[in-house]
Design goal:
The chain is an alpha/beta fold and 375 residues long. The protein has 14 helices and 10 strands. It has a 4-stranded mixed beta sheet. Strands 2-3-4 form a 3-stranded parallel beta sheet, covered by helices on one side. Strands 5-6-7 form a 3-stranded parallel beta sheet. The model has no long low-confidence stretch (mean pLDDT 96). The structure holds iron/sulfur cluster (SF4).
């Protein structure tokens, strides 16, 4: 049965949800190897042989957050030990250092801090985060603020999502992370992140962002309490969103990033329920391959997370349908505080050497996957 499904995918057709679930439920090593090979051939056809990377820096401007997602070890209450909130000078210092180190992108996400306001406006605070960097470095691409942050600003300032997104675009946001998606299934969300926006609101904000001309990425937090049906349901929702964007002539989602769950510092009940603290590589790789097969016609760029899988795991994922190894990040707090083993910073040379170990060419890209430097 999987031969017919894989043949259908190789002929260029989209798989149904049921077909995707069949692939994900395979346990036989020969069947899994066939899925890997198909994903690798589709990667070659849809994205080419070159493995790309981006030189970027993460800035997590605060970890003070009003929410309590069950998997989050990053958040703090105001005044709690370990709570921080970067001032403008500190943010500019980090951006300046990033530019010195060749960054083309700053990625900014943070906790939902209700006291972070300027003239009683949350939007003005977020705009100043962007403006602080753009005023000094107008050429830097600002990839910032998740759909959850958009909803937070809209709620705080009594604005529509479109008003918030337009305001962020005006300040200089060039693209937005498709994070806070976790798994787009409300049953999962009720347990994992009950205070977060529901699946329908996430989709509404992402589609509004696309309509306003701002591309997003797409992500999935995998390997916790979700079922294969919920995983494929999530991929199907991403595919529909991208189909709508493409049919309207928009960029939509620039890439898909699988984020396997790291639960080392998660609360005990969730850890017990999940049963492992670090990602199970074999599960992450099978899902990586199926995501390529399921989404690749619509989202050709697929990226593993070296922060969560470690660099060796991320390199292995390049054989399971991925064509990009992500960014240098320069610093990373959210997953590292959750107990991830991958580290917080990657030098360009390390990324290049890792890609080279597969005997594939590499190239630096910008956030929108335009190639900058060829090997
Ligand atoms: S995942 Fe984000 S929204 Fe949830 S608690 Fe952590 S910082 Fe807050």
């Amino acid at each position: 049965m999987i031969d017919a499904i894989l043949e259908k995918a190789e002929s260029g057709f989209d798989l149904s949800v049921d077909e995707g679930v069949v692939l994900l439920k395979q346990t036989d090593s020969d069947a899994i190897e066939k899925i890997r090979q198909t994903s690798d051939r589709l990667r070659q056809k849809q994205a080419g042989e070159t493995v790309t990377y981006v030189v970027n820096r993460n800035i997590n401007y605060t970890n003070i957050c009003e929410q309590h997602c069950s998997f989050c070890a990053f958040r703090r209450d105001e005044g709690e030990e370990g709570a921080y909130w970067l001032d403008w000078a500190h943010i500019l210092e980090k951006a300046t250092d990033a530019v010195k180190r060749g960054a083309t992108e700053i990625c900014m996400q943070g906790g939902l801090n209700p006291t972070a306001k300027i003239q009683d406006s949350s939007l003005k605070y977020y705009q100043k985060l962007v403006d602080t960097i753009k005023a000094e470095f107008p050429e830097l691409h600002i990839h910032a603020f998740s759909p959850q942050e958009v909803q937070f600003i809209a709620r705080e300032d009594h604005l529509t999502f479109a008003d918030v997104i337009a305001g962020l675009r005006e300040a200089g946001v060039d693209s937005m992370p498709g994070t806070a998606a976790e798994v787009l299934d409300n049953q999962v969300r009720k347990i994992l992140c009950p205070e977060k926006i529901d699946a329908e609101t996430w989709i509404e904000i992402v589609q509004t962002t696309h309509r306003l001309g701002i591309p997003t990425t797409s992500t999935m937090l995998s390997g916790h309490i979700e079922t294969p049906e919920q995983q494929i349901g999530h991929l199907a929702k991403l595919r529909s969103i991208q189909q709508v964007a493409k049919q309207s002539g928009l960029i939509g989602m620039t890439e898909f990033i699988l984020l396997p769950f790291v639960g080392q510092e998660a609360p005990k009940p969730l850890r017990r329920r999940v049963g492992h603290d670090q990602p199970i590589l074999a599960d992450a790789l099978l899902l990586t391959a199926v995501a390529r097969i399921f989404l690749g016609n619509w989202i050709p760029n697929h990226q593993p997370s070296w922060v969560k899988l470690g660099l060796a795991g991320a390199v292995e994922a390049l054989r399971w349908g991925c064509n990009d190894i992500g960014g240098t990040l320069m610093e990373e707090h959210i997953t590292t505080m959750a107990g991830a083993i991958g580290g917080t910073c990657m030098e360009v040379q390390d990324l290049q050497a890792a890609i080279g170990s597969l005997d594939r060419p590499y190239a630096q890209r910008d956030t929108l996957y335009r190639l900058l430097v060829c090997a």
